[in-house]
Amino acid sequence: MSDAALLEVRNLRLSVRTDEGIAQILDHVELVLPHGHILGVVGESGCGKSTLARAVLGIVPKTATIESGEIRLEGEDMLRLSDREMTERVRGRRIGFIPQDPYLALNPVFTIGSQLLSPLRWHSPPTLRTERERRGHLVSLLRRVQIPEPEAVLERYPHQFSGGQRQRLMIAGALACGPSLVIADEPTTALDVTTQLQILKLLKSLTEEFGIGMLFVTHDFGVVAQLCDSITVMYAGQTVEAGPTREVLADPRHPYTRALLACHPDRSDGLTGIPGLVPSPLAPPTGCRFTPRCTHAVEVCSRRTPRFVSDSPGHLVSCRLADEHRKVGL
Amino acid sequence: MLRFVLRRLLLVIPSLAGLLVMTFFLIRVVPADPAAALAGENATPAQVAEIRRQYGLDQPLYVQFAVYLGQVARLDFGESAYSRRPVSLDIKLRLPATLELTVTALLLATLLGIPLGTIAAVHHNRWPDTLLRILSVGGIAVAAFWFAIELQLLFAMQLDWLPLRGRMSPGLTAPPTLSGFLLIDSLLAGRLDAFRDALRHLVLPAFTLSLGGLATIMRFTRAGVLETLQKDFVTYERAQGFPPHALIWKFVLRNSVVAAITQIGLLFGSTIAGAVVVETIFDWPGIGFYTVQAILTADYKVMLAVTLLIGVIYALVNILVDVVHGLIDPRLRERG
Predict the structure, then answer these.
(1) Is pLDDT above 90 for A232?
(2) What does the pLDDT read at residue A14?
(3) B255·A93 Cβ contact <8 A
(4) Which of A54, A107, A170 has its CB closest to that of B251?
(5) pTM (two decimals)
(6) What is the pLDDT of residues A300-322, one digit of tens each?
(7) In degrees rounded to 5, what are phi and psi of residue B272?
(8) pLDDT band at residue B11 under the 50/70/90 scheme
(9) Is the residue at A1 inside a domain?
(10) A196: domain range?
(11) Which of A229, A266, A255 is nearest to A319 (CA)?
(12) Of A39-53, A149-163, A233-247, B26-40, which gets the smallest average pLDDT?
């Protein structure tokens, strides 16, 4: 399976039981992440991108059901593994995780050392047999993510660190067991702008250095443009467009991607927005979920979910208009 | 950490001062006239007045208070009207029995309540949770005196597994008193027979006394664990492959017990109060039964000494609780 992509999600459907009924959170989600690449998953809040990240890790809430689809990590279907196998073989070990808010993601009553060393003990790679070796490994990682005095840091508690430093600690934690994939769930949203930039640079150089692929969840096209090799755009639980970053940004094909890009402050003249609201997952529109807000919508859009088809090599769009865009030169 | 502990100790001084003032006035405003009580039922007014003078009760309040402070400092509480012995001697003989019972009961409540509360939270709204909830409501609702008698009937009378009453079997000589706790003293003396016997006597009363605290600690732990489980860091720890067992019993639990441990401090008061009933039923030679007699006979010296003593112990226990909080949560330690 050496030719398999690092991460491949096919036709993933996930629903959540709520008091008001079944919510269809993910619907026909598709994505491919080659080894060593950075894939940005972009969408507004509530579009299901964080749920997707959790589904890959197998930590969706108990009320969630994966109805169909595949999640393949280096060819192996994660959905066939038990929770125990996921804990022992996948989470922390093959997939590292960088959370959204580093202020909330560290356990306040344990030292950094006991939090970051524990996964190394459980998922101990063969090269790190003794506690001393594990400490040494972690200290060198902390040094690599530019944490000053890494030995002393192990004895400190989370509240003694700034947000940027905490996120560096989380990055070291995600890399500790030598994963091939790192999932970052909006890792810079909670940080101020200058720190944000430093963290992005660090992530970029680390993925290159360690040959790690990264699934980078964000709502910010600016961040994607700086960091990611390719983009997958999500809307209301569906993947609507995917392709190389440069191509998608330069030539967005899906009406939603266009609308979203037009909202970006760098690109719009003033404050523009997309008319209407993201639909409730409790009663999503049939067919393409963007239909009610789409200025190009026609009758067929609300009848059938469009297929995710290749528009040009490596550029996929899920829109009835995709073909016609080309024909009429929209 | 040392500074933290010292600060806690300093903070207790105002509480103890308050306790001294309160006990002083409490005795002087109780409806029963202590002088009349001391003089006995058939005393003439002249005799009562003589006793009042003898005990300094006719002096101005500030003089009385100064005298009172001196007595407290010397641990001199006078002679019990009932036992005709120095109150401090009575207490010295009886207090360890009560403390052994109370501490065991609270220990039992904690050691059972925290794991059971955690199990309930992990199985939130499923059968183990429901079962434990019924038991904990029962633990609070059931009257201790009824439950104690049922336990005596079953385990002492019918099954004959455990002794019915007392602290030690009559045939056995007690180990030399060092701590006053029979369990500890018998172990220190290397007397395993005495240890076994003391333990057997302790089981039923301690269990009865632990019920209310057990239910409370269980409920607070359950709520704490449920709250912690919603936290981001738990999601993060799961994402990093923390095995469920370590995740719950180490990383979640330590974040969840602060409220439950606060309760342990508060429960100490109600458990000592509960000891009064339990000691009476199990014929436990502690301070509870002694205090009841003192109250019934308006033996104010005993009441005073016992109130002060329990107040001091209560304050000390709550310092201990604060220190434990500091050990658990580094942020509290730094805030001091």
Answers:
(1) yes
(2) 94
(3) no
(4) A107
(5) 0.83
(6) 888 877 778 777 778 888 888 77
(7) -65, -40
(8) confident
(9) no
(10) 7-94+180-328
(11) A255
(12) B26-40
Rounded-to-integer distance, Cα B84 and Cα B29, Å: 24
Under DSSP, the state recorded for A155 is T
Q: Do A92 and B251 count as a contact with CB atoms less than 8 A apart?
A: no
Q: Which residue of A has its CA nearest to B230?
A: A61
Q: Which one, of A312, A311, A313, lies nearest residue A322 by Cα?
A: A311
Written as six digits, the tokens of B277 are: 């009933």
What residues does each domain of chain B span?
A: 11-73, 87-335
Sheet containing A230-235, strands listed edge to edge, beginning at the edge strand earlier in sequence: A95-98, A181-185, A213-218, A38-42, A230-235, A238-244, A315-317, A309-312
pLDDT at B223: 94
Q: A110 and A218: one domain?
A: no
Contact B311, B19 (CB under 8 A): yes
Provide ipTM, 2 decimals.
0.86
Cβ(B84)–Cβ(B38) under 8 Å?
A: no
User: For B180, which DSSP code?
Assistant: S
Q: What is the C-alpha separation between A189 and A277, in angstroms, rounded?
A: 22
Which of B23, B37, B33 is closest to B82 using CA atoms?
B37
Nearest alpha carbon to residue B239 among A280, A29, A181, A197: A181
Mean pLDDT of chain B: 85
Q: Are strands A309-312 and A315-317 parallel, antiparallel or unpaired?
A: antiparallel
Residues A186 and A231 reside in one and the same domain: yes
At B34 the pLDDT is: 67
User: Residue type at B286?
Assistant: G
Exposed e or buried b per residue across B49-72, where buried means at least 16 C-beta atoms within 10 angstroms of its C-beta: eebbeebebeeeeeebbeebeeeb
Residue B79 carries which DSSP code? B
A250 class by beta-carbon count within 10 Å (0-12 exposed, 13-18 middle, 19+ buried): exposed
Q: Are A288 and A301 in contact (CB under 8 A)?
A: yes
- How far is the C-alpha of A23 from the C-alpha of A2, rounded, in Å? 37
**A313 CB contacts (<8 Å, ≥6 apart)?**
none
Is some CB atom of chain A closer than 8 A to the CB atom of B331? yes
Q: Which superfamily is assigned to B87-335 in CATH?
A: MetI-like (1.10.3720.10)
Total structural domains within chain A: 2
Contact B251 A106 (CB under 8 A): no
What distance in Å separates residue A174's CA from the closest CA in chain B?
Answer: 7
The tens digit of pLDDT for each residue in B270-313 reads: 888 888 888 888 888 888 888 888 888 878 788 888 888 888 88
Read off the pLDDT of residues B31-81 as tens digits, 9 standing for 90 and up.
566 677 666 777 788 888 887 787 777 778 888 888 888 888 888 888 887
